[in-house]
Amino acid sequence: MVSVLPRVERLSSRVIRVLGCNPGPMTLQGTNTYLVGTGPRRILIDTGEPAVPEYIGCLKQALTEFNVCIQEILVTHWHHDHTGGIPDICKNIPISSEYCISKLPRNPHHEEVIGEKKQKYSYLKDGDVVKTEGATLRVLYTPGHTDDHMALHLIEENAIFSGDCILGEGTAVFEDLHDYMKSLEKLLAMKTDLIYPGHGPVVNEAQTKIQEYISHRNAREKQILNTLQENTGKSLTTKELVKIVYKDTPDHLHKAAEINLTHHLKKLEKEGKVLCENSPNLRWKSSL
Fold first, then answer.
1. pLDDT attached to residue 115
2. Fewer C-beta neighbours within 10 Å, C or N terminus of the chain?
């Protein structure tokens, strides 16, 4: 069971969390969006999914309750549960000028469209700093979950807004395991105290959580290799491997588990530790 989170909650003197009201197996309680700063104008990090009027209502409630407005919008990565609410915010919570909406570019770079093309992204780069009264955010390029993923280091609290690189509960999915592991090592080296994740509750033991993520992926890799070595001479499909390696994971999460397992196998194949057979369908065996 996931923790119960309030829809609007002040987490510190400079961070307010507004839940995206889009709960699900992959989004947990919903996407966490954050209003950051101490002054009348706050930075909004992430925007939830498209067409969720409950979220817009909660965001309006937070802005009214704390007597603040949105200075600009930062999104941690391109996934629709983080960028989808942008058009609804622009339409329902207008400001005197256009919102500045920023993110890291896709890799390889291509121009991205927001909603009905009424807004455009301003592109950031690793190391950029975004400021508002009471908050300084430094951009950290943390690919792996997606090719454009960024975390944000809140200097004043030595905290990280981790997007989907690290979650408050459970583990994350990723597109590229090699990049993802590098990003986790990068975050670990920062020695931060606190993590404000893209989904789930605040992580108070940041270093412990990041190390757990690294250890979990290393253990999973070892488990996959051991399973293939125990079946020497046989080759297994990813579905067969998931049933063995993820036997303690609920069935409805096996599809996501299979994606992660495939990325592990591709990494191991690059390292020459496993072989892929393409006939009659994709099968894997140990080469050790």
1. 80
2. N
